[in-house]
Design a protein that fits this description.
This protein is an alpha+beta fold. It has 16 helices and 21 strands. It has helices at 5-8, 49-55, 112-123, 174-177, 189-193, 239-247, 262-269, 300-304, 316-324, 328-335, 365-374, 402-416, 429-432, 463-467, 492-502, 507-521, and strands spanning 29-34, 63-65, 71-73, 93-97, 138-145, 148-153, 201-207, 211-216, 230-235, 254-255, 274-289, 340-342, 378-379, 385-387, 390-391, 393-399, 421-427, 450-455, 528-541, 544-545, 563-564. Strand 14 and strand 15 form a beta hairpin. It is globular and about 75 Å long.
Length: 566
């Protein structure tokens, strides 16, 4: 099997000079604002970026991806590779070694048992782990000593860097979570709101959907870091308010995800308090098509599975027509400017996995109407199409945000032009992305026909990301409504390609398979309708040093290096 050094033999180095601090906590308080407020600090129980990134201040993985996408060690002493003997020559195991002397924030030792426990926690059949795809293919984990973790795979694993790599898959403390396994996991409020971690900060107070107070971790492995004694993490509001609080008023030091029109950000920067930063990764704003019937007249299990196909979105002609009616260039222009680009792909980056499809580049209202006509969806007296008594009447939902509401309004108008009735709904982002198994309004439950959002993946390999759409990965009652296959897509041919990708080492072939998987979800089925390849746009105060925007991992990945410029 051919293995390229880019995948297994070369490990990146941090491409910036870390700050030198005189004393831990010498720079007072740092304030961060995420207008999508965190609702939990356990990324295994939420797929929301706001929850994953706020948790990354406290709990850490064995390794991360730096701003170039290169692998760098965090809790691990080094990144295992074939070259250094950490990855077995037959690719069936990876051996991690913890750094010496690591401590949890409570002062107890971090051991290999914590790492193994984390995998057991996520892989529990009743746990509903939001990051289960990260652990795909693991057959067993051995812990020969307190610092060594041997992860064994069921077959050759050319890309073994999924579990415990990046902000989506951190290590949690066994002693704290061992009574929170399986179905008990969502009910462990104290643990999920205040995880004991190894990161630079410790939670002192967490008010869900509002604010988190933190202090410097006295047991952090670098005695001079973090520079800040305390951290305030504010959630809620909107992107406009968040941007102003950094760029105009200077109330906050860092604002995440400024999903605003480019001219709005430019005007804010004139306030002179801060600077906007941007970078492109694989983030895509898209429409998700529900393949199952979301009718409230059905029981939860039926709505969660393929027992009841969607009354009209099960027809690919309808899904395709909805895509054809959209003017993506206009969406980019009004929503993102240079911080966005038209895309027809779920995975637009990195280059190796980018299909670069162009089928959706041009709006085609005439063609969409003709397609629906030929498929037997006829317009009624009210202009709305129907077939066999079923009307194409869509509930289209997304999170509350000015750009997304602009998108909704335009898309509704375009769909009206092809005979589709559309009801718009927007939900508080903290609820929509929150993952609360008791809420009917989460993106995972998908109690609508179409929903719009963006998400991304850690690192430069989309295997786990694409693996989310495997049959059986749909959110459902027995998984505590966790899972990323929200469309309830299921295709044995897709699963077979995933299995092929998992055992393919040649990079060019991995790219070919990844592109095929992308196409099966997009242009071949229109299950996912990509709209915009989004750049990440955030902002930081002029007085905040050490910030390195990272589009391949948590934006807060190097917060331990942040400091006050004096």
């Amino acid at each position: 099997m051919k293995i390229k050094s880019l995948l297994l033999g070369v490990v990146g180095c941090l491409a910036f000079a870390p700050a030198s601090f005189a004393d831990r906590g010498s720079d007072g308080n740092v304030s961060i604002i995420y207008w999508q407020a965190p609702s939990i600090l356990n990324p295994y129980l939420s797929g929301g970026t706001k929850d994953i990134e706020s948790a990354s201040l406290v709990i850490e993985p064995l390794g991360r991806f730096d701003q170039t996408g290169a692998l760098v060690p965090y809790l691990a002493a080094e990144i295992p590779t074939v070259a250094n003997g950490g990855v077995s020559s037959d690719l069936t195991s990876i051996t991690w070694k913890l750094k010496e002397g690591l401590k949890w924030s409570d002062g107890s030792a971090v051991t290999s048992a914590d790492v193994k426990f984390t995998a057991d926690y996520c892989m529990h059949p009743e746990g509903g782990c939001a990051q289960l795809a990260k652990f795909d293919g693991i057959s067993s984990i051995d812990t020969p000593d307190a610092r060594t973790i041997v992860i064994n795979f069921s077959g050759p694993k050319p890309n073994p860097y999924a579990a415990f790599m990046g902000g989506q898959a951190p290590v949690i403390q066994k002693a704290q979570f061992e009574n929170c396994m399986g179905a008990k996991a969502p009910n462990c409020t104290a643990e999920n709101f205040g995880p004991i971690g190894t990161g630079p900060f410790v939670v002192t107070d967490f008010r869900p959907n509002d604010v988190i107070q933190m202090k410097a971790n006295e047991n952090y492995r670098d005695p001079s870091k973090p520079a800040f004694a305390t951290l305030t993490f504010k959630g809620g509001g909107d992107a406009t308010g968040a941007g102003r609080s950094v760029l105009e008023t200077g109330e906050f030091d860092y604002a995440w995800n400024l999903q605003l029109a480019p001219e709005v950000i430019a005007n804010m920067e004139k306030g002179g308090k801060g600077v906007a930063i941007a970078g492109f990764g694989p983030l895509v704003e898209r429409l998700e098509m529900n393949l199952t019937d979301p009718s409230p007249s059905l029981d939860a299990d039926t709505r969660a599975t393929r027992k009841a196909p969607h009354p009209f979105l099960s027809d690919m002609n309808v899904r395709k027509a909805l895509s054809m009616a959209i003017d993506r260039e206009l969406l980019v222009e009004i929503g993102y400017g240079k911080a966005g680009g038209v895309t027809c792909d779920l995975v637009p980056a990195p280059e190796l996995y980018a299909a670069k499809n162009d089928y959706c580049m041009t709006q085609d209202i005439t063609g969409a109407n003709a397609l629906l006509d030929s498929a037997g969806w006829a317009k009624g007296a009210d202009g709305v199409r129907s077939k066999d008594g079923v009307r194409i009447s869509i509930l289209y939902q997304t999170s509350t945000n000015a750009v997304r509401q602009d998108f909704q309004a335009l898309i509704k108008e375009w769909w009206t032009q092809i005979g589709v009735e559309t009801e718009l709904r927007n939900l508080n982002a903290s609820v929509f992305f929150g993952g609360d198994p008791g809420s009917p309004d989460t993106f995972q439950k998908f109690y609508a026909d179409v929903e719009m959002y963006a998400n991304t993946f850690d690192g430069t390999d989309p295997q786990s990301y694409l693996g989310a759409y495997r049959c059986g990965n749909e959110p459902k009652p027995e998984s505590q409504w966790q899972g990323e296959n929200i469309n309830r897509f299921c295709d044995p041919a897709y699963d077979a390609l995933l299995d092929e990708l998992a055992k393919t080492g040649d990079l060019a072939k991995r790219g070919e398979i990844g592109i095929k998987l992308n196409n099966m979800l997009t242009k071949d089925s229109y299950t996912i309708v990509p709209l915009v390849h989004r750049g990440r746009v955030s902002a930081h105060a002029n007085s905040l040093g050490g910030v390195v925007l990272n589009t391949w991992d948590s934006e807060l990945w190097n917060v331990a290096d942040w400091h006050r410029i004096k």
